[in-house]
């Protein structure tokens, strides 16, 4: 054999072998769109998923986080995942609701009253049913849940302790009918605004305030443009990690199981992050000069107005009053009268 040809053949084989060692067959680096920035609960979930995915796959698979909405608005990423041009997205559940209305039960005001309620609902039969619904409705599959905490109200103008104190404030909300109607029940018309536009809107005074959990307020540095915080508890923010169903179905059965198990690990990492960090982050915001107050009368006026006006309006979209009562029963709450 020609020695030069022999060497060339050997080199080619060696190169293929080396590539195989570096990148196992069918190895994948999943692209994950993340709406929030570094230090957020969304990032904690994403990092938990990456770590578990690498460990469970023996290094075969990994994932890369694209923070701060680099890959588009949260609702846009649902569309991208649905058509298979994006692998995964981490986003607020209210941005999935337009595509799969039944998940809106988690954004109805004052349904979820604790982290434990959120864990019970998302990790039990209710969560599994909503996952199936998002597959059928939107072409995406929920594989992990982020627990970000209660969406507290912030604004740049004045302390808010009562519904009456909201008068005169322009509040940004996501483009979500349930959240819009909740503020309307309190006597003001909020301003729907994309998440990517929110900081600039607050900075330029287009809007006076917004609501988000403490971890998000800190991660997004809202303390630079907001002064007052009110500890309302109208929504416990849940932010799922979704995967394109077409991408998921292209995986082998073994790899599908690996992704699902990594999602479970990420869910647990998120819950631990919230338990470990929320009080610490609240203190950071105080140190940054924010003023935190509680609503009067244990928030009862906010609760009564919102539940009376908003719950009945959305029974049909979440699957009926029976579904509402099923959710309430799962977390030990009394049913609503039919």
Q: What is the CA-based Rg, rounded? A: 23 Å
- Domain count, please report it: 1
Biggest β-sheet: strands ordered side by side in the sheet = 2-1-3-10-4
Number of strands: 11
**Can you say what the CATH homologous superfamily is?**
Bacterial extracellular solute-binding protein, family 7
Q: Name the helix and strand elements from N-terminus to C-terminus, one letter apiece.
A: HEHEHEHHEEEHEHEHEEHHEHHH
CATH class: Alpha Beta
Q: Give the oligomeric state of the chains in this entry, treating copies of one chain as homo and distinct chains as hetero.
A: single chain
Tally the helices: 13
Averaging pLDDT over every residue, what do you get?
Answer: 93
Query: Looking at CATH, which topology would you report?
Result: D-Maltodextrin-Binding Protein, domain 2
Distance between the termini: 87 Å
Q: What is the CATH architecture term?
A: 3-Layer(aba) Sandwich
Low-confidence stretches: 1-23
Derived from helix and strand composition plus strand pairing, the structural class reads: alpha/beta
What's the story with the biggest beta sheet?
5 strands, mixed
- What share of residues are in beta strands? 15-25%
| Helical proportion, percent range | 40-55%
Shape: globular
